[in-house]
Specification:
three-stranded antiparallel β-sheet; 7 strands; globular; two-stranded antiparallel sheet; 119 residues; mainly beta; 1 helix
């Protein structure tokens, strides 16, 4: 869901959230979804006091022929971002070349199941 945040002057830090519907999208045999959550504290005059961004990457494979996929990510190098890999993801391959693959290459990704590969 998409969240719309509006100001509520009656609460500290202001803020109420409203969920908006997410439009349907075409899905391929391998589908990657990234969810991000932005938390911030802003003063009444608009000054930013605190901000944090948290995210999760989900991988969903819908065809068995693609279940042993290795995914190459193209990332900008930003040392302020910290990634936590799922225990079954090859952490060394991710750290060295931003390649997303399972530790055990003979084991496939589960079919039709969202797998949280990063946080």
């Amino acid at each position: 869901t998409v969240t719309d945040v509006s100001s509520d002057p009656g609460t500290h830090g202001g803020g109420s959230t409203h969920s908006l519907p997410v439009p349907e999208i075409d899905r391929e045999a391998v589908h990657v979804r990234i969810d991000e959550k932005l938390n911030m504290v802003v003063t009444r005059d608009g000054a930013l006091e605190e901000m944090s961004v948290k995210g999760a990457m989900q991988l969903n494979v819908s065809e068995a022929s693609c279940a042993r996929i290795r995914l190459q990510a193209n990332l900008n190098e930003d040392r302020q971002l910290a990634f936590q890999t799922h225990p079954n993801v090859n952490k060394k391959a991710w750290q060295e070349s931003h390649e997303l693959a399972l530790k055990n290459p003979s084991r496939p990704f589960p079919i039709n199941t969202d797998v949280g590969v990063h946080r």
